[in-house]
Amino acid sequence: MKSISEKALIAEPDWFSIAKVKNYKKNNFDFLLEKYVQNKEEVYSKIKSLKKEERNFENTILALENCDNPFQDIFHQIGVYSFTHTKKEYRDLADDFNKALSEKSVDLEYDEGIYQAIVEYREGNYKKKKKEKTDLDKKYGIGSLKLLEDIHKGYKKMGFDLPKNKQKQLKDILKKLSSLSLDFSKNIDEYRDFILCNQAELEGLPENFIKTLGKVGENYKITLDYSNINPFLQYSSNRKKRKEIVDKNNKKGGVKNLKILSEIIKLRNQRVKILGYTNHVDFKTEDRMAKSEKFVRSFLDGLAKKLKLKSDKEILELNKFAIENLEQYKKNKSLEYYDYAYVATKFKEYKYSYDTSKTKEYFELEHVLKKTFQIFGELFNFSLEEVLDKDKRKILVSKEVRLYELLDSQLKKPIAYLVLDLFPREGKYSHAAQAEFSTGIQGLKISTIVCNFSKPNKKVPSFLSLGEVETFFHEFGHALHSLLSKAKYFSQSGTNCDHDFVEVPSQLLENFLYEKENLKKIAIHYQTKEKLEDGILEKIIASRNFLNGYQYLRQILFAEFDLDLHSQKINAEDSAKYYNSLMKKYFGYNLPKDAIFPAGFGHLVGYDAGYYSYLWALVYADDFYSEFEKVKNNKSKIKEMGKRYRKEILEVGGSRKEIESTKKFLQRKPNQKAFLNKLK
User: pLDDT at residue 7 above 50?
Assistant: First the structure.
């Protein structure tokens, strides 16, 4: 393959040049890195060469913000390919490139001259020229003032106010952290284990699910992909096999990941101590809505007491139901950690009188996609059309991956693209995620949704559980946050907002699934085309908060584990043992001594000291939804609400403080009422 040209790196990206990224070899990656370093050094040199009195927002702050623009699209696409590409060779090369890129970036960005340039402008011409200070957002666009402060704060947190030896220590730590974090994530993505079941051991599993399973000889293969393990745990009546697969899942990532995690935690602690922070939690939360560990702890503690009471009551109900109704528990009289999903499914079916395995036949993937796009298209004023053009589809890694054009309903033209990568593959990211592809083609963003739903075959189409439909709604919320953003700067676009706000748009959309009119549109039998009967729809809606005390308490557990690990309350070497103790504390479960759940807890990279964000954001999302709920029966008002949400939340992204955007949308101060009402 010929090397990419230097011209291709700086030209406006097109479908052909981006498609070539999919076929990069080592020499292409090496060349790309070389040109990136060359470009960055040239831009930085120019910024540093300016005299103090010459500095302005455009030649200093904007120059820094736009420095990587010629490369952003390629880098983001490589990032997506690194966990979705069909070839292991490419994924390995992409991971090596990302490590090298991160290391080089640290070398380049640890430039005291750049920090001095920012300080010179901020403390000099910016402060002296009152008009520029007043009109920064007016002159350059909303978010410009925030960009200046964020860039200054970011460089300051790199330690440039510290002695040279301390700066070098920080630089070395960042390089190591980046490399270790990539290894940690890769070990999870590529961890492959499974159990084998004979025909008799499949008792309780839906026939349509069994048809999707692979085989090894005469035995059926159940993998750790959630499209396999989740249905198995919900419906398999074989306790021994459920225990076997849960125990394997609790070793995901492997012992090597425990060692990597321990090293990551130590390095994070070293970094923040050098910078003068109490711990990693305070370091991370300072730039979020929460602002401090103390405030996060207060938030979680306030919910934990309510949730523990509700969860304990729910667990007692589950035990009582199991002992009275399920033969295998009449002797044992207690539930183990591998029983919860199965017993909860049975209890839910008993309590609400519908078969969850049968309702799956009403959530056929193609129909779910069509109606999801329609529901939110009408609400937020867009439409999605699948792209079949072969040249445009060249950016996709597999024939089963799909490309959609997002058109603004008013402008009547494409404004973005959506990629759907929905089925499991060897080496692919094993959970659900959304990734934004920078400015995309012709200035239009591209967002990728990655899921692992059951793959269709000649016998059956792809069926989704209600939980998987909710997962797609969630990831689609992230995608819309990216695709509909109008933020001027990429660092403030869409999901580039405060970390504890980023889940709000995704969790908001989950609520719309449980509106009866929406369920009616989505729940259609794949063969008969009959709608799911009203009685069952009402039961599904009524069951939404089923065992939510238990579910939210699990979020408390994960958040507490994350905070305790990063506030040095526990030793990193004891992470697995400590996690097991939390399971005992909150739910009474005794995990095996060799369980190493933290080794497969991918959120410890990227969501470090931030897992609390899920519950934090959920409170805001429920508050947002309460406003939609007030007007859901008024077509004109619901469209006005959708328009306001798109304008004040999605389009704004991180270009202003999230609490300001929240108040703009709500037209009042936020509160916890809607969330707490779900716990009654």
Answer: no
